[in-house]
Amino acid sequence: MPKRIFVILLAVLVLAFASVPTFAADGSGRGVLSWFSDVGGFIRDIFVPDGNYFNNQLSRLNRHINSRFAGLGELYQMIDSFFKTLSNPPPVSLSLTIPNNFLFSGYRGTRVAFMAPAQPYLKLIRDVLTAAVCLLTAIVCYHKLRTFFTEEG
């Protein structure tokens, strides 16, 4: 019989302490049970990291990689930001616009877009330059890794 009472009491205590973080997050611990909210906050802080935990760990990892691989991580971030801007380029336009009634009364204005015929060629040049930057990146990364491992060995 005492063993059953002990098991029931233990189950009630486990359920009470399992609900403590929820009670603390709710913020309703006022008055006599305010210590319950403090205990809940303590238990929550043990298991749930602060808001900047993952950002801090990622920046710490980036610093470690940059110190270990001699700036290879910074090179990657620079190239990554470059390709993100290349993936959605702004439209290129060079146009001459003459408004209505500019030269004389009744003149119908005109607009000439100089870059419109060159759009396919500009896209081809951008693709070729992107491929060249990818190739150059592979060569630089290979060289950095090769010098890193030959200096260590």
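Second entry:
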Amino acid sequence: MFFGCGSVSAAVLTGAQVGIFQIAIVWGIGIALAIYLTASLSGAHLNPAVTLALATWKKHPWKEVPLYLVSQLLGAFCAAAVLFWIYSAPLLAYETKTGIQRGTPESVATAMLFGEYYPNPSGKPMDQAPFPISTPQAFGIELIGTFLLVLSIFGLTDDKNGARPREGTAIFIGLTVTILISLLGPLTMASFNPARDLGPRIFSLFAGWGTVPFTANGIGWWFVYLLGPMIGALIGGGFYQKIIHPIR
């Protein structure tokens, strides 16, 4: 969360990144590093949708799921808090330059540093978006993206998959995220992770953006960014376990 949301903050506030791929690859590397650091300790779920899929399809103990979800959400919230402190001066300068008053509907332009919105604000108010995306479309995008991510995770971690890159599993999971963000990030900011969205979104509620994070897209904040990834993960895990895995 720190690396990924940090790349978004750097892009919007300082122009440090050029194009969606540079943001996407930072996300991918950050995820790969997190997996290498935590896989032997906790399995490196890092994502409530992945935890739900593993508990449903791979017999991860359900009794551990609540603690995983709380840990994921807390980690994302803390990362947002640290980034808010680090980027406080550039954020204030950006808001002053653009005339954005935090807490107004236009402040989605900076609230996007934390939570996610559709269409991708790209550092601007929603009414300046170059194209519209409906809530059902955004829901489908997040569902499909998470489906592909979890399908890839199951395949890359399947001991029966002799073709999987054993030492490079984390790298390929990170690259999968990189590809998905490159393709879908311009549309919905490409979450695929309920904790990634909800933790920073809750933080932004207390950091001056008020109700904007929960009203800008109407029901989309939970329908698109919480429900969509959860359903996509369940379908992706089930598709692998019931269709691909038995063939191996």
